[in-house]
Amino acid sequence: MLCASLFWYIVDFIYRLGEVFLRMEQIVINGRRPLQGKVQISGAKNAAVAIIPAALAANGICIIDNLPNIEDVVSLRKAITNLGAKCKLHDAHTMEIDARNITLFKIGKDEARFMRASYYLLGVLLGRFGEAEVPVPGGCDLNVGGRTIDYHLKGFEALGAETYQDDEVIRVKADKLVGADIYLDSPSVGATINIMMAAVFAEGNTIIDNAAKEPHVVDTANFLNKLGARIKGAGTDTLRIAGVRELGGGEYTVIPDPIETGTYMIAAAITGGDITVENVIPRHMESLTHKLKDMNCKVEEDLDFIRVWADAPLKASVVRTSGYPGFPTDLQPQISTLLCTVKGKSKITETIFDNRFRYVEELNKLGANFKVEGRAATTDGSCLFRGGEVSATDLRAGAALVLAGLAADGEVRIGNIRHLDRGYEAFEEKFRALGADIRRVGHN
Ligand code: EPU
Prior knowledge:
The chain is 33% helix and 25% strand. By secondary structure, it is an alpha+beta fold.
C-alpha cells in the first residue's frame, strides 16, 4: 500500500513539474460575479462507474443511459472493451454493452492508472466467471498509506473465493461461490457494491450487514435487479441477495449526480448568485439543503429541481461528514470553501477519510485561514479569496478551488485539472453558461 501511495505521489509530482515546464492545462478564473441561471446535472459518476462494470454480469445486451461524459467513464469503457465486451456509444450519454463474449478476466495497469472503480471488475468477473485480476486501483489519494480494499477481499473470501494482493495487483478466484452472512466493519460504499455484485451469482442467500446506503448503491442494485438479480434492502443497512445462475440484458437510466448537484448549489451561495439545478433528485440532497438553509441561504425545490440563492449575509456552521443520509465527504471540500468566506467561526470534521484536507494548503494560498488538526479543520471565516496559482490535489479538491476562484478578487489559475475531468462533465461550459469568467489554457 505504501508503494502504491509513493507511486501516486510521484505521478502527482511529475504532473506538477509538467505544469510548470510544459504549460500543461490550467483552469483560469476571474471571479466575483454572482452566478445566475439554470444548469442541467449529469448522471452520477459514482453510480456510472459501478453500473458499467455491473453490465459485464449480463449474458445479454445492456443499454445504459444518462452516463456522465467524463474521463472515468472513458477509461472504464476502454477497460471493458479490452476484456472482450462490445461497447457502442449511441450518443455521448448512452452506451450499449454486450458482454456475452468476454474472453479475458484481467485488466492492465495502464487501463486503471487514474481510476478507482476498476476494483468493481473484481466482484463482477468473480461472480460470473470465477476469476479476475486488476491492478491496485488509482483514483483520489484520500487516506494516509492508501485506500485499502480489505473489506472487499474479506467479503469475497466469505463467499468462498481465494484472494491475493501485492503492491501491484489484486487477484480473486473461486471454483464456486456460496452465499454467506457478511458484516462490514464500516459501511464502505465500494465493498457493499463489489460484494453484492459477486453475491448475485453465489449459490443460496447472502446477507451484507452494516452496508452502505448511498444512492449509487441503490442505483447499482436496481440495475442488477432489472437484469434479473434478486437483491433486497438496498438503501438500508442490510442487503439480502438470493443467488441466480444467469442475468439477461436490459435498459437503465443512471441517477443524477448528487455531488455535481451540490457543487453548483454551493456555487450559488459562494457567489451570492441564484442557480437552479435541474434533472436532480432533491431527496438525495437533504443534508446539504438543510445545511445551506441553516446558513441563511434560500432554497426552493420541486420534483426534479432545486433553486439556491443567497441575498443576505450567511452564517457560520458546523459540518460533520458521514455516510448517507449524512453529510457526504465528497462535498466536504466545497462546503468548507464556502464556510471560510462566511463571518464567524466554523468547524468541519471529516470522519470517512483521514487525508481529505490536502486542499486546505492550496486554499490558504488564496487567502483562506484554515487550521487543520487531525480530522478537523477550523476557520475564523470572513476570508476574501485573492488571485493566485494553485493545484488540484484530487477531484473534489479541484471543485473546491474552482469555487474559491469564482469568489476570488483576482485571477485564480488551477493546475492538475485532470482530476476535475475525471469526475465533472463540461464544468467550464456549465459555469460559463451561468455567467462565470472561466477558461482552460495550455495543452494536455
Ligand atoms: N475502507 C477500508 N477498507 C475497505 C474499504 C473502505 O478501510 O475495504 C475505508 C476507506 O479507506 C475509507 C472508508 O472506509 O476510509 C470509506 O471508504 P468507501 O469504501 O466507502 O469509499 P470508496 O468506495 O473507496 C466511494 C466513492 C468516493 C466516496 C466514498 C465515500 C466511488 C468510485 N468512490 O469510495 O468518491 O468519497 O465512496 O462516500 O464510488 C469522489 O467521488 O470524489 C470519491 C472519492
